[in-house]
Amino acid sequence: MIPVEEALSRILSAVRVQPAEQVSLTDALGRVLAEDLVSRRTQPPLAMSAMDGYAVRAADVSQAPVTLDVVAEVPAGASYDSVLKGGEAVRIFTGAPLPPGSDTIVIQEDTERDGDSVKVRESAKQGAYVRPAGLDFSQGEVLLPAGKILNARDVGLAAAMNVPWILVRRRPRVAILATGDEVVMPGDPIGPNQIVSSNALALGAAVRVLGAEPVLLGIAADDRDALRDMARGAQGADMLVTTGGASVGDHDLVQSVLGDHGLEVDFWKIAMRPGKPLIFGRLDETLMLGLPGNPVSTLVCATIFLAPAVRAMLGLDPAATGDTFEAVLGADLPENDRRQDYLRATLTQGENGQPVVSAFPKQDSSMLRLLQQADCLVIRAPHAPALAKGAKVTCLRIPTSAASF
Hints:
Blueprint: H1 4-14, E1 20-24, E2 37-38, E3 48-49, E4 53-56, E5 66-74, E6 88-92, E7 104-107, E8 111-114, E9 117-120, E10 130-131, E11 142-144, H2 152-160, E12 165-169, E13 173-179, E14 183-184, E15 195-196, H3 199-209, E16 213-220, H4 224-231, E17 239-243, H5 254-259, E18 263-267, E19 272-273, E20 279-283, E21 286-291, H6 295-313, E22 324-329, E23 340-349, E24 355-359, H7 368-373, E25 376-380, E26 392-397
Parallel strand pairs: 5-6, 13-16, 13-17, 14-15, 17-21, 19-23, 22-24
Antiparallel strand pairs: 1-12, 2-11, 3-10, 4-6, 4-7, 5-9, 8-9, 18-20, 20-21, 22-26, 23-24, 23-25, 25-26
Helix pairs in contact: 1-6, 3-6
């Protein structure tokens, strides 16, 4: 068995960053920029009015009251191109460009209109209510850096930058294959000795949230020919993820069958709980990650190994998936054995505001409900001593929003 850190290091060293592809801005949400995004325009391109009112020269309204001649009216989308002279004003609306020669806006609340003249009741300083050209950004500025995961605000900014197409990292294709005679898909007839398969669907959802494209291959029976034929569906994928069949029993066929068809195994045992029987290798040009069959083991291993691997494929920092923090124990913990342990736990807030973590009394790897209810995983190093209530421990946060894994 190898340590968790070594296993993750081997996986990440085998990962290659995806090439770039061009997509429309309408398809950019959630994608990872493959290059810096440079503004194609200055915003605003000209000095603009920030309020409804009158464009004037500051020298004409330094003292008030004063009456000016209204020579034009400029709504947003129009302009007045003549140079504003002394004693003149232009009726202007929010978003309209300032006429040449003007440098100040008097808001309409400080004026009285009388036909073709306006009385300015309050003086105004030069530049009042004016948005200068380039207030937001200028042409040629890098506003969105390579490696950025684009959110809705980023898409809006890119549109304002007048960028219609962008280069992003291609989504990794992750083929997912469940194995075992004992599992059936939700909704299918269930035999007396079978259970409903949740692993493939959960992994597919996780892969999609991570920014990759899941390819669900179905369930392969515990039969060499069936497993071989269904695994062929992974051809062209960047990674094949299997669940179940990763151990050494007579019916655990993944390593044996795929080994006969080109699988080069890097390692297949990790000193961790849950998730000891985990396979990693390469099947021709496709990376292969064989996860245990128990639902909790599958998702814990996906959190620790699959998520960083997908991020690395997208050119992102793989360590960003590991949101660890310190908390104090809400109950005693016994000493640990030689495997690194990941205990499902809930979080509460102590009297001093410090997070308090309480591991579930039962940690059986088939109990998916407890993983769904957990806020975090308590990480216990191999051979960690017994800890009393109130001791500090390191925890791995489990994201709860659908926007993150």
